[in-house]
Amino acid sequence: MLLANLKIKDKSKKPDNMAKWKKFKHEPENIDCLHCKFQQAEDSIPIEEFTKIDEEGKQVTVKEITIIRGSKDDVLGWVF
Ligand SMILES: [Zn+2]
User: Fold this and answer.
1) Where are the domains of the chain?
2) Phi-psi region of 39 (alpha: psi -120 to 50; beta: other; left: phi over 0)
């Protein structure tokens, strides 16, 4: 079965390049580079519908998620 694109709700109205976390510089020497951490979180947002098992053990398709952002407009996670 082909999965359709996920509908993504994001309260942040900022254009992608205006997110506060983008002002953090990439630090190649730093294994805990915040820029990379924030970028990874951004990249982890799913783009296609996905399935999960609900509380009753039934497989359901998640068609929409809502992004949760932190104070730097960074992606903390998402809910559905
Ligand atoms: Zn980095």
Assistant:
1) 7-79
2) alpha
pTM over 0.85: no
Using the mean position of ligand 1's atoms as its centre, give its distance from the Cα of residue 39 in Å. 8
Cα of 20 from ligand 1 centre, angstroms: 15
- The pLDDT assigned to 26 comes to 96
Q: How close is the Cα of 54 to the center of ligand 1, in Å?
A: 37
Write out the two tokens for 69. Answer: 């952002």
For the stretch 6-33, pLDDT in tens is: 999 998 877 777 899 999 999 999 999 9
